[in-house]
Amino acid sequence: MKHIRTLLCGLVAATFAVGAAFADTYPSKPVKILVPYAPGGATDIVARLLADRLREALGQSFVVDNKQGAFGILAIEEMARSKPDGYTLMVGNVSTNAITPVIYSKKFKIDYQKDVVAVARLAVIPAVVVSTTAGGFDAKTLGDLIAYAKANPGKLRYTSAGVGSYPHFDMAVFAKKAGFEAVHVPTKAGAAGMINDLITGDVQTAFINAASSLGVVKSGDLRPLAVITKTRMKEYPDVPTMTELGFAGVGTFNWQGLFAPAGTPKEVLATLHKAVAEALAHPAMVEAFQKQIITADPSKSPEDAQAWLASEIELWRKTVAEANVSLE
């Protein structure tokens, strides 16, 4: 009898252990995804599309929380300081998660490279050099833009998602190579703010991602002058690449990535990476990306993603040193 009682107790304990394991299977509660920009920009678009697919794949809510400001530092630090359990993540881009850690390292209250891990590379988005059509601004080609800037020193105004963002670097480098001066007018409202300032004519030009600008280009409010792609875009077959126009190497491919706090269990990172890879390959996601001119570019593993992030930071460390762009 004693043996049977012991056996029954063991079975009960095992049952509770299995139940607890299933209860703790990730994710067992809603997951927050921080986005370091206001709603409507490319990073926000990618995050929301991904959240929808992850919810369907993993059976839990993935809620996007927009936390813009401080060059992405606010979102990064909130994510990095959260419990490393996979329930607070971040979707960031090349500006917030590769450039900001380089040029604003002293503003961080965390050690970015020790406290943040890349879960997965997600996608790349081509950029476009655009000009406004407001106020009679009549630059129809990149050559027209350069000619205007040279004929009107200090009058060409360009916008970006913030000081030190990739559109800031891209235009500053382009201006130096083309031999003109331009006034930088950054916005605090991300791509949506850039588009608003262009449409109103407060600024005349910008490097901006194609995902955010497609609609206003089609409406005629903005005019595409050049694309930052290896070959011409099917959406703009008559718009030349920067390389065709003699500016090879000018312009950034805007990538998007998923990030988590360092110390997040490997099993959780593996679960997320697998779900992300499946989400990016899903026909509905592929179609949604195509409509937004976004190309999925998943990493092979969490380890591959981490190596990629490290290489991007090193690349931008060199780029920043060579560009010598004013951050005032």
Q: Name the average pLDDT.
A: 90
Assign a percent range to the helix content.
40-55%
Q: What's the CATH superfamily of the largest domain, by name? A: Bordetella uptake gene, domain 1
The tally of helices reads 12
**Mass-distribution shape:** globular
What is the CATH class of the largest domain? Alpha Beta
Could you give a quick summary of the protein structure above?
The chain is of the alpha/beta class and 328 residues long. It is globular and about 65 Å long. The chain is 46% helix and 19% strand.
Structure description:
This protein has 328 residues and is α/β, with parallel strands linked by helices. It folds into two domains: 30-124 and 254-323, 3-Layer(aba) Sandwich (D-Maltodextrin-Binding Protein, domain 2), CATH 3.40.190.150; 127-228, D-Maltodextrin-Binding Protein, domain 2 (3-Layer(aba) Sandwich), CATH 3.40.190.10. Helix content is 46%, strand content 19%. It contains twelve helices and eleven strands. The protein has helices at residues 2-23, 42-58, 73-81, 94-103, 112-115, 142-151, 166-178, 190-200, 210-218, 266-281, 283-291, 302-323, and strands at 31-35, 62-66, 88-93, 116-125, 127-132, 157-160, 183-186, 205-209, 222-228, 254-261, 295-296. The strands form three sheets. It has a six-stranded mixed beta sheet. Helix 7 (166-178) links the parallel strand 6 (157-160) and strand 7. Mean pLDDT is 90; it is low at 11-23.
